[in-house]
Amino acid sequence: MPENALFNEDKLTELHQIANGNMDFLNKIATTYIQQFEAKYPELKAAAELKDYERVEQLAHLLKGASYSVGLEQTALLFHDLEVAGENAHLDGADETLATIESHSKRFLAEWTNHFEQLT
Q1: pTM of this prediction?
Q2: Structural domains of the chain sorted by starting position, each given as residue range(s) with its CATH number in brackets
Q3: Of the four, 20, 44, 67, 73, which is 20 to 30 A from 115 by CA?
């Protein structure tokens, strides 16, 4: 996997096979992820600012799982880092991690769509 790859190609291939090439289904998966991200990410960011360690751990765990489910392995690993930071009540560097996650989220839809358009 290239250093700057947003997605795990194997996971995307698996999703494509599950969807049987149905772009509506794949778009629904993407939309569901984006909605969950948009609903929970601001809450995570606020929890980090307030040093609400337990909430950071919970939200990061939730978003980690969601990220893995759409093949966003690098993003999921960043959420894992935040989850562990919350668990250990040690959020130094969280701002930088959150900024990287935000940059990933901005790339998500374009790269997701581009990937599946190449397969159809």
Answers
A1: 0.92
A2: 9-119 (1.20.120.160)
A3: 44
